[in-house]
Design a protein that fits this description.
Blueprint lengths: L1 E4 L7 H8 L5 E4 L8 E5 L2 E5 L12 E4 L4 E2 L1 H13 L9 E4 L3 E2 L2 H13 L12 H9 L12 H22 L7 H16 L2 E2 L1 H10 L4 E4 L25 H6 L9 E6 L2 E3 L12 H9 L12 E3 L1 E2 H11 L3 E5 L9 E10 L2 E3 L13 E8 L16 H14 L3 E5 L7 E3 L4
Parallel strand pairs: 1-10, 1-11, 2-5, 2-10, 5-7, 6-8, 7-9, 11-15, 14-16, 15-19
Antiparallel strand pairs: 3-4, 12-13, 16-17, 16-18, 19-20
The structure holds inosinic acid.
Inosinic acid binds next to helix 4.
């Protein structure tokens, strides 16, 4: 099963992964890095994870970081230590890192920040974590991989080769100080020694889990519309965020994926720059931002908020092959007198059901809205679909209709227990 985001990230995937982990023995992250931020609330205690799969909070489950992820060793180890301090078993028997996972190097972080700084207009608003530069090195075939921590000579040669080019960029283009090989090695080697304990053959682990008849959960990060190919380019991240990448990003066959759970927030949010047709700058937007505590879990930035955009969700269903929707933060809509859903876009004098394909065209659409009544009740204690107010049921039924995919899970609060299932007859 794949759990992935259907919007621009921050849909609440962490909670859904945490819930569905009950059914799985192995949980695998397959793309992205510590640009992600998954907030989990278990027994009232909040944990924010950026890199380690959310499934780690379930005792007895095994987690893995696949080849498609980019790993910042410092962040990875800080998370290991943070979880261990909370009493979570963080032994290598529970957590594996693929030898093929690319490593975010100090020069990647510097270049990410310097590039954004240098862009006068048109900033992407990256998380500044070095994600893009790391994926660039991967594609240029000069990247450092986690397995290189086992071979100091290879690691040193790769760093020397990389710095010849990176230092020219850092000094000549961005006016920063150069990095020396020794400086980078000094920072990296102690981290690498600790990461080495977690290195494993992740495709082999997946193969073994399959042979044992165990369920595997593939945990996506970011969201469909931040995808490097099918997102709102260039305002996207640098990895493939689609469910299809669960196979190649972790190392198995597409035939091993039978279910696709697309996580949809009951409204829309976006951090960073880029077009956002249903963005609200009025009181309703403030309500969503405040009630939904819409601040980025990674950067702390205020998230832009708007009405639910079903053209985006419909596109996500098409791109990912959704078998079930998980609707999150439905409770946040409570208290708004009326709700709008974007059912289509007006674009070049016609109504279209999917985002237009040309670059920048999403910035030129006008949302076509349907208005529905809101509800006043606090729904966070509802534990069945039938217990929801009529207006909430109507909203969800309409979402299902417009998405063309069934709703499987509805979340009405951050806690594990604040969840209900929608059974479709
Ligand atoms: P990068 O992934 O740091 O290169 O950032 C590229 C764009 O993706 C920026 O607009 C970020 O705000 C956005 N982004 C990256 N990761 C996430 C995420 O996990 N949630 C929401 N937005 C993200």
């Amino acid at each position: 099963m794949v759990v992935h985001g259907a919007q621009w990230g921050d849909e609440g995937k962490g909670k859904i992964v945490d819930l569905l982990t009950e059914k799985a023995a192995l949980i695998v992250r397959f793309h992205g890095g510590n640009n992600a931020g998954h907030t989990l609330v278990v027994n009232g205690e909040k944990t924010i994870l950026h890199l380690i799969p959310s499934g780690i909070l379930h005792g007895g489950k095994r987690c893995a970081i696949g080849a498609g992820v980019v790993l910042d060793p410092q962040v990875f180890l800080a998370e290991v230590d943070q979880l261990a301090a909370k009493g979570v078993d963080m032994s290598p028997a529970r957590l594996a890192v693929s030898l093929r996972t690319h490593v975010i190097m100090p020069y990647h972080r510097l270049l990410d920040a310097a590039r954004e700084e240098a862009k006068a207009g048109g900033k992407i608003g990256t998380t500044g974590r070095g994600i893009g530069p790391c994926y660039e090195d991967k594609a240029s075939r000069v990247g450092v991989r986690a397995g290189d921590f086992l071979d100091e000579a290879l690691l040193t040669a790769k760093i020397r080769h990389a710095l010849a080019e990176k230092n020219a960029l850092l000094t000549d283009l961005y006016g920063l100080a150069p990095l020396s090989v020794d400086q980078v090695l000094k920072e990296l080697l102690p981290l690498g020694r600790r990461v080495a304990a977690y290195l494993a053959d992740v495709p082999g682990l997946i193969g073994q889990a399959k042979a044992d008849g165990a369920n595997i959960l593939f945990e996506g990060a970011q969201g469909t519309h931040l995808d490097i190919d099918h997102g709102t380019y260039p305002f996207v991240t640098s990895s493939c965020c689609l469910a299809g990448n669960a196979a190649s990003g972790s190392g198995c066959s597409i035939r091993d994926i039978h279910e696709v759970v697309s996580v949809v927030k009951a409204y829309t949010t976006r951090v960073g720059s880029g077009p956002f047709p249903t963005e609200l700058t009025c009181a309703a937007g403030e309500h969503l931002q405040r009630t939904g505590a819409e601040f980025g879990a990674t950067t702390g930035r205020k998230r832009r908020c708007g009405w639910l955009d079903m053209a985006l969700v419909r596109e996500a269903v098409r791109l990912n092959g959704t078998t079930g929707l998980a609707i999150t933060k439905l409770d946040v809509l409570g208290g708004l007198p009326e709700l709008k859903i974007c059912t289509a876009y007006r674009y070049e004098e016609s109504d279209i059901l999917y985002p237009p394909q040309r670059e920048g065209a999403l910035g030129a659409v006008t949302p076509v809205y349907e208005t529905m009544p809101g509800w006043r009740e606090d729904i966070s204690s509802c534990r069945s679909f039938d217990a929801l107010p009529e207006a909430a049921k109507r909203y969800l039924n309409r979402v299902e209709e417009l998405a063309g995919a069934p709703i499987a899970i509805i979340s009405v609060g951050p806690g594990r227990e604040e969840t209900l299932c929608k059974k479709n007859s």
